[in-house]
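Student: Please help interpret what follows.
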Amino acid sequence: MLNDPLANALSLIYNLHKTGKSSCEIKPASKIIKQVVEIMNKHNYLGAVEEIASTKGDSLKIALLGSINKCGAIKPRYSVKKDDYEKYEKRYLPARDFGIIFVATPGGIVTHKEAKEKKIGGRLIAYCY
C-alpha cells in the first residue's frame, strides 16, 4: 500500500540514480508527482519525461541524467511564511543557491526561489540538490 506516492517516487528516482540506471518508470503518477518531475526536468535534474496512459492508471517514464546528489520528500509538510524560507534552506539544502525546495502554494507547486520572488507562503513538500 502506498502511503505517500510522492515520497515513493522520489526515493525510486534517487535509488535508481545511485545504482547507475539510465531510466525509471513511476507508477502511479499523480498531478503532484507530474508537477514535481516537470520542475526537476526544467532545472536539469532529470532528462526527458514521457507520460504513458493506460487503463490501470498513468505512469511516467523518466530519463535519468546523473545530476542528482539527493532528493526526497519533506515530512511533516511544514507550513512556511513568505519570510521564513531561509530557515528551511539551511535545514534541507547543503549550501546557499544550491538545490531547490518544492513549495505547494495556492498558485500551484513552485520552487522556493519563485515563492520568495512572488512573496507567497505555502507548504514544503520536497527537496532536490
About this structure: The domain at 5-64 is CATH 3.30.1370.30 (Ribosomal Protein S8; Chain: A, domain 1). The chain has a mean pLDDT of 93. The first strand starts at residue 23 and ends at 26. The first helix runs from residue 5 to 18.
